[in-house]
């Protein structure tokens, strides 16, 4: 396999190896920083919002050190795998390494590779910030995703207009999405016209425009608080659906 199609990331975390292992080896732990996960008929299913789910199996398991997830292909080989490696450090921190293999072989695989890379940067940042600010608290997730035929730059411009702000990293911000409660916090993630992340007193809000896959989504994490996930998810899904639609339906500010 072309080495460029093997995406590797690592992050140093202010957590013990046991805490990191819990975060990457259980559905509850994965939900804390990634997307909602649950066990379904012996498989682990991830919910990416908007009816988009993906199920996989545990292909390798070395307790406390290594786990590999994947979905076996027709020839018995996984077309894509996620490998997590946990390494404790003597100073009380832990290094988590992630390796994703098996990218599709189409002409646009490099765009797919870049898109996954940005996504993992966000999710690993979530994990680091979780241990820094919300460690030990259970999570309630809200996820909304929609496909779009609009150019990414156009969707992004509409997104920040509808949120009422286009802040920079480190700014304090008050987002005002129409029909939804305001979001107040600090911008802790900002990647060009791709990703905006806000840390609030209760958790994280993430907004992403994925031009390579023609999608727009929001993933939200609420730690240690009661959240009506069903109604909140429905409201944000309607908001994202409208954003993904024709420009004539926009309610930009």
From TrEMBL:
Coiled coil: none annotated. InterPro entries: ASHA1/2-like_C (IPR013538), START-like_dom_sf (IPR023393). It holds the Pfam family AHSA1. Transmembrane segments: none annotated. Residues 15-131 form the Activator of Hsp90 ATPase homologue 1/2-like C-terminal domain. Belongs to the AHA1 family. This is SRPBCC domain-containing protein. It comes from Umezawaea endophytica. The lineage of its organism: Bacteria, Bacillati, Actinomycetota, Actinomycetes, Pseudonocardiales.
